[in-house]
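Thread title: Can someone regenerate the structure for this chain?

I was given the following input by a collaborator and told the matching structure tokens would be attached. They weren't. Posting the sequence so someone can regenerate them.
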Amino acid sequence: MGALGDYKITLIHDFWKPSNEYQCKHGMCIIHNQRDLTFCEEIEKSQWAAGMKQLLWKLLEKVNKARDEQKEALTPRQLSYWSGKYDKLLAAGWIEHPPSPKQRRKCGAVKKSKTQNLLQRFGDYKQCILAFARDFTIPFGNTMAEQSIRMMKVKQKISGCFRSERGAQTFATIRSYISTMKKQGFQILHALDLLFSDSHLTFEPE
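Best answer:
Regenerated them for you:
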């Protein structure tokens, strides 16, 4: 549908598989993965899930500390250390939740538990999950993006729909401008006022 066009940087998403088809770099939303880990920990009593949650939060603390020190990424030594802990924890997870043996005279793949599916995901998409530690411009999750598009859904719920495609495009343009100004630290009313003045190209955030 042309949603991303020629976007080639890093797309942060929540493992909705069609997102993987975009021809760009990918990063996994850790916040969504943390919710899945919480489910496996609380419902399926997985010690691996509890351990992986703790590892990711500790890694985020290291990333935030390094970012405060004006660094752009963890050092190769630090990345190797955390990558090794990740691999060891993943191996321990498969020992805790081994694949079920295939039953005789039954066709198709053996059904996996939620935790086994999550273990598979963390193995296959390790580089995407740890992307936030290799490059500090990559966020820990995509919550901000979801918040930015939420008003479009709220608008649909209130009025039922947009009366025309042009109206929807206009609404999206206004919301995009407001969202960008908020992220840049501008006061919204001031940003809207300067939008219609000659100084809107040079004003500074307050």
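The chain has a mean pLDDT of 82.
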